[in-house]
Amino acid sequence: MPSLIENLSRDQVLFDAKNSAALYYDSPVRSADMHKDQGLFSSTVVVILEDESRVIVQLKDNEIDLTKVALARSLLGSVVPRMNAAPTEYAFFAYVSNFLPGKMWIDVDSQFGIEQDSAIAKQIAGLIARCNLGISSAGIVDSHIVPRLAHILKTRHNLPQDLRIRVENMLANVDSLKELPLALCHIDINKMNILVNPDTLEVTGLIDWEAAALLPLGMSAWCIRYLTVPIHRRQDEILEKSWPVTQAFWAAFFAAIPHNLQHLKSTFLLSAQIGFVLLNGIPESCHHSGENLAALVPRLAWLDRAE
């Protein structure tokens, strides 16, 4: 009988991981060990096969929509791991994927200055732009984004007045997002999901696509706020490099989008702000305190301009 990840022993997790890898890959399993970074509601194991290749096995409580991961890989290539389902005994679900080279950006960030961070941010901007699906986003705007913004205004009675005014303005101008194409949006681009080669600064991986959503292009670009402004002890720390790296990100993004969209810079900024509100700032499943909601205002202001 499968069990939740939190109820599994280390031995059970490693057994499942080795068994899943053995059943999926042709090469026998040599060893398996827990990955140094673990997520919520999952266990991640690095498995080494006899042919010296390394693979990742994730045991999860919830099922992954593998079509989203496959779509991301088709758009972005090898920076997205190839992921497949595998049999499991103790966990509910097991997924195997190829091991991507590089280190998490968060692990090497202290070594980098403006030039290095800008080089990485520009690549992320280019990857976001490449997720353009080239079809209309009007249906998603009408059926998903408009109702979500309206629901926030109707039910979140503790919104600070300046935040409420911002959300009202978003709702008033949301139809402009229909000019943007639909895109596959990674909803949690952070420095733990970005792998880089610290020597060449090449982005070698953008992982954790399982919660990706189909939204107007640019709605995931809000990530640049958290990629450039760290939060320490619940306080945002604007660094000397924060704004120059943000400018580099936006310049690369606008350079990468199709020519016929170049005149829509203000609309892309609005898309990023709405994405920030819906995907991070005021998600459906969470109720934030007034203090947390007040902190959203300066974070949204960071997305008011690109230069």
Topology, element by element:
Elements: H1 10-24, E1 29-34, E2 42-49, E3 54-60, H2 66-76, E4 83-86, E5 93-98, E6 103-104, H3 105-108, H4 114-129, E7 132-136, H5 138-155, H6 161-173, E8 181-185, E9 194-196, E10 203-206, E11 213-216, H7 223-228, E12 231-232, E13 235-236, H8 242-256, H9 265-281, H10 290-294, H11 296-301
Antiparallel strand pairs: 1-2, 2-3, 3-5, 4-5, 6-9, 7-8, 8-11, 9-10, 12-13
Question: Can you walk me through this structure?
Answer:
The chain has 307 residues and is an alpha+beta fold. The chain has 2 domains: 5-98, 2-Layer Sandwich (Phosphorylase Kinase, domain 1); 103-301, Aminoglycoside 3'-phosphotransferase, Chain: A, domain 2 (Alpha-Beta Complex). It contains 11 helices and 13 strands. The protein has helices spanning 10-24, 66-76, 105-108, 114-129, 138-155, 161-173, 223-228, 242-256, 265-281, 290-294, 296-301; strands at 29-34, 42-49, 54-60, 83-86, 93-98, 103-104, 132-136, 181-185, 194-196, 203-206, 213-216, 231-232, 235-236. Strands 1-2-3-5-4 form a 5-stranded antiparallel beta sheet. α5 (138-155) packs antiparallel against α6. It is globular. The N and C termini lie far apart (56 Å). The relative contact order is 0.13. The model has no long low-confidence stretch (mean pLDDT 95).
> Can you write the helix and strand succession as a string?
HEEEHEEEHHEHHEEEEHEEHHHH
Query: Looking across the biggest beta sheet, what order are the strands in?
Result: 1-2-3-5-4
CATH architecture of the largest domain: Alpha-Beta Complex
Strand percentage lies at: 15-25%
Q: Please bin the fraction of helical residues.
A: 40-55%
